[in-house]
Design goal:
alpha+beta, Bifunctional nuclease domain, 35% strand
């Protein structure tokens, strides 16, 4: 079963200085962090802020290609967590044919925002991520990090809270 999520915030991890996309279950208060690269975080932030680039950015180009190929993005699913790496699937429809594509979650999220389609997390991934939120060898434990994320206020989530 997939759990629908929304972006709750985009922030920097204080221990690694890496961007985190914080996803929130729409039906509960459960949060799930995904660490992403700086460029991917920027692509997500640009769409959250609705900043228009003078030329199409990569995710805009992909959205345009999907549309020009008479396909629609139906949803994205963060489908797997393996060896501390998240995997995602783009679910498209081209005519009557469903099409699935493997994607990095950060790219899937950036595309979902541009296509205005829902984001889901596989239930087993949500449960794994809740127990094992990061592959850090040093730094906070998963429980400490979960407590830190659960205690964040709107101000802590920064400029990009949703």
């Amino acid at each position: 079963m997939d759990i629908e999520v929304r972006i709750r915030g985009l922030m920097m991890d204080p221990s690694t200085n890496m961007p985190i996309v914080v996803l929130k279950d729409v039906a509960s208060e459960m949060l799930m962090p995904i660490w992403v690269g700086i460029f991917e975080a920027n692509a997500i932030a640009i769409e959250i802020e609705k900043i228009a680039a003078p030329r199409p950015m990569t995710h805009d180009l992909i959205r345009n290609l999907i549309g020009d190929l008479n396909a629609q993005m139906e949803r994205v699913v963060i489908s797997e967590l393996k060896d501390d790496t998240f995997f995602a699937t783009l679910w498209l429809r081209q005519g009557d044919a469903p099409v699935t594509l493997d994607a990095r979650p950060s790219d899937a999220i950036a595309l979902a925002l541009r296509a205005d389609c829902p984001i889901y997390v596989a239930e087993e991934v949500m449960l794994k991520a809740k127990l094992n939120t990061t592959g850090l060898v040093e730094g906070p434990t998963a429980e400490q990090l979960r407590g830190w994320l659960d205690g964040l206020s709107d101000e802590d989530l920064g400029h990009y809270k949703m």
